[in-house]
Design a protein that fits this description.
- The chain is mainly alpha-helical and 212 residues long.
- It folds into 2 domains: 112 residues, Rna Polymerase Sigma Factor, Chain: A (Orthogonal Bundle), CATH 1.10.1740; 68 residues, Arc Repressor Mutant, subunit A (Orthogonal Bundle).
- 61% of the residues lie in helices and 0% in strands.
- The protein contains 10 helices and no strands.
- The longest helix has 24 residues.
- The protein is globular.
Length: 212
C-alpha cells in the first residue's frame, strides 16, 4: 500500500468512527474485496453471508474502535475469522458438511520463488493447492497475502507470535511454488466451491445505517 493510500485509509477510519457515511463506504470499498477472498477460503460459497455478518459487527463496534487503517484491517479480519469459526462449528454439527476452517482460497501466478508467489493471489485457480498446505501455513499465507496484513497483525488475528507467522508463511509460499512448478504432484484437499469471484471492487458500498 502506498503512503497516500495508507494515509487515506487512516483518515477514513477516523471519519467513519464519527459517523461519516462516505468514509465508511471508503473503508468498505478498500477492505471488503480482500475480506471476501479470505472468507471464501474459510467457508466457500457462504462467504457472502459471513461477510455481511462481519460488516454488521464492524458497524456496531466502530465507534469504540481505536487504531489506524492497518489496525482496522486486522480488526475486521479477526471479526471475520471468528464469524467463520462459529459457522464451521455449526456446520460440523450437521453430518455431511464437514468443512475445515483452514480450507483456503487464492492463486499465486508464480514460477519458483516465494517472492513471486507473493505477487498475485487473485483467482481460485490454485485453491486446491493452498488447501493442501498445513493449516498454520495456509492461513498465514491467506492473512499475509490476501488480506495484506503484516506479520504482527496476522499474528494477533491468529493468537500467535509474529515470528511463527512469518515462518509459516514462508514455508507455505515455498510449498506453493513447488506445487505450481509441478502440476502433476498429488494434492489432497476437500472440494470447495469458492463462488463467483474475489468480491466487490466497485460501486458505492453500503451506508452505516444499511449495515447496522
Amino acid at each position: 500500500m502506498t503512503v497516500d493510500a495508507r494515509e487515506a485509509l487512516d483518515g477514513a477510519v477516523i471519519a467513519a468512527r464519527g459517523g461519516d457515511e462516505d468514509a465508511f463506504r471508503a473503508l468498505y470499498r478498500h477492505v471488503h474485496p480482500h475480506l471476501l477472498r479470505y472468507l471464501h477460503g474459510l467457508v466457500g460459497d457462504e462467504a457472502e453471508d459471513i461477510a455481511s455478518e462481519t460488516w454488521l459487527h464492524v458497524a456496531r463496534g466502530l465507534a469504540g474502535f481505536e487504531g489506524d487503517g492497518d489496525a482496522f484491517r486486522g480488526w475486521a479480519a479477526t471479526i471475520a475469522r471468528n464469524r467463520a469459526l462459529d459457522h464451521v462449528r455449526r456446520r460440523r454439527r450437521r453430518p455431511c458438511l464437514p468443512v475445515p476452517v483452514e480450507a483456503l482460497a487464492g492463486h499465486a501466478d508464480t514460477r519458483d520463488t516465494p517472492g513471486e508467489a507473493l505477487g498475485d493471489l487473485a483467482s481460485h485457480a490454485t485453491l486446491a493447492l493452498i488447501r493442501s498446505l498445513p493449516p498454520d501455513q495456509a492461513e498465514a499465507v491467506l492473512l499475509r497475502v490476501v488480506m495484506g496484513l503484516d506479520s504482527g497483525a496476522a499474528a494477533r488475528v491468529l493468537g500467535k507470535r509474529a515470528g511463527a507467522v512469518r515462518t509459516a508463511c514462508y514455508r507455505g509460499l515455498r510449498r506453493l511454488a513447488d506445487l505450481i512448478d509441478d502440476p502433476d504432484a498429488p494434492v489432497s484437499a476437500a472440494p470447495v466451491s469458492p463462488g463467483a469471484g474475489p468480491g466487490v471492487t466497485s460501486g458505492t458500498g453500503p451506508t452505516l445505517k444499511e449495515v447496522r
